[in-house]
Amino acid sequence: MTSTLLRPLTWFTTTTGLSTVLASPRDVHLILATRSLRMFAYGATSLIFALYLRSLSIPDPQMGAFMTFTLLGDIALSLLLTFTADTLGRRRTLALGAAGMLLAGSTFALAQNYWVLLGAAVVGVISPAGSEIGPFRAVEESTLAHVVPPDQRPFVLAWYVVTAALGSAAGVAGGGALVDGLMARGWAAGEAYAGVFWIVALVGSVNILLAGAMSAGCEQRAAEYEGVPLVDSEGDSDADAEDAKPAPLPPPKKAAFTRISRSSRAVLFKLCLLFALDSIGSGMANNAFVNYYLTLKFGVRASVLGGIMSSTWIVSAASNMFAGTLAARLGLLKTMVYTHLPSSLMLAALPVPGSLAGAAVLLVLRAGLSSMDQAPRSAFIAGAVRAEEMTAVMGVVNVARTLMQSVGPGVTGLLAGRGLFALAFVGAGALKAGPRKGYIAMQADTADPQLNTLLYDDRSREI
């Protein structure tokens, strides 16, 4: 009887990879907790970020420029920290990034001057859109890839996305409730919005402590990696080296920056090209602009909007629980393409509904698909490049994505200033749908056979 009752739970934990995560090292749990808290803070501020700038009488074009410069500052910070992370130390890098959150959150809570806020956003770490920003993701994903075996990476990385989505869901709901609660107590809208930024400062403080609690096993020098890369400089697989012993760890390099090999650069170049259009679209229709658009169009209260956006993150978390299993069964490429294209079309259709309920349904449906390609993409990168270059490669990919995202807010700000706000979502959806053929065209010699092939068995087959 007991075994019958436990059977559904066993199926769930096995299918979603939760059992794998629970059995993972303590550092995995600390990284998941760190990211969940960070996304909680980002989610809370994304709900009111554009509204806060508007309460300071900042015009829409300047608002778009503010977000663009914030992303450009993130690029500089991310490049510096991700390329030096394995020399400086991954734990120290995460702690420094968390200190940036503390700086930016405190400044936004206390200051109201446009240039002071912009300086804090550029130098510190704050997310206008509620999406990941700063050096964290590259360092955390490369660390997760080191501390778990290759066959477990899709599941652990999927839960890395799931816990982030759950954090964001709680953040947007909590942020909306906090704003309405403060305004009910007589706070002005701008004051209530500013109060939300204390969450960022608090989370930054907690994450500094969590980074310090991680073990030395997180560091690249202490991690074991395979001496023979999955793809060597000639593109040959490591099938013949199956029985070879891993090469000994090299001594720490004196160079301050990680060097990327020719084979990894080839993968990196393709990925950066692939993500360019998609990232511009992400910048044009980031969560801050979605929240701002719905508020302007439907006059929705912060708590109601927070509930809607929280629902989208919960649905996203639920769908991503099965991303690892889906990738293992369909292959990484099919998972990325089959989820990416429909979600892009739904984004383009966001201006169509004439009611808040209709827009909410569309957002929730899109949320079920929009992030399911993240874990397969990260698993592919982790398996396609040399282990000692993983942090740098993931850092460059994230920086390239952020660079292209920085183009989007300026475009949306100009369109919104001219009364064409809805057109931004149509354009964003079209741009995000563009990389579909590029995913299909990726070369087979970059696939990780242990994580299922990135391509179809029949390369001539079309979707």
Overview in brief:
The chain is mostly helical and 463 residues long. The protein is 71% helix and 0% strand.
Give me the secondary-structure topology.
Layout: H1 2-16, H2 18-22, H3 26-46, H4 49-55, H5 60-88, H6 90-110, H7 114-123, H8 136-147, H9 153-184, H10 189-213, H11 262-284, H12 287-298, H13 302-320, H14 323-330, H15 332-348, H16 356-370, H17 374-384, H18 390-405, H19 407-417, H20 421-433, H21 436-441
Helix pairs in contact: 3-8, 3-9, 3-10, 4-10, 5-6, 5-7, 5-18, 5-19, 6-7, 6-8, 6-10, 8-18, 9-10, 9-13, 9-14, 9-17, 11-18, 11-19, 11-20, 13-16, 14-15, 15-16, 15-17, 15-20, 19-20
Transmembrane segments: 39-57, 63-81, 93-111, 117-136, 157-179, 191-211, 267-293, 313-332, 344-365, 411-431
GO molecular function: transmembrane transporter activity
Region (Disordered): 233-254
Structural summary, described in words:
The chain is mostly helical and 463 residues long. It has a single domain, classed as Growth Hormone, Chain: A (Up-down Bundle), CATH 1.20.1250.20. The protein has 21 helices and no strands. The chain is globular. The N and C termini lie far apart (46 Å). The model is unreliable at 222-257 and 443-463 (pLDDT under 50). One of its GO terms (molecular function) is transmembrane transporter activity. InterPro entries: MFS (IPR011701), MFS_trans_sf (IPR036259). It is a multi-pass membrane protein. The chain crosses the membrane at residues 39-57, 63-81, 93-111, 117-136, 157-179, 191-211, 267-293, 313-332, 344-365, 411-431. Its main location: membrane.
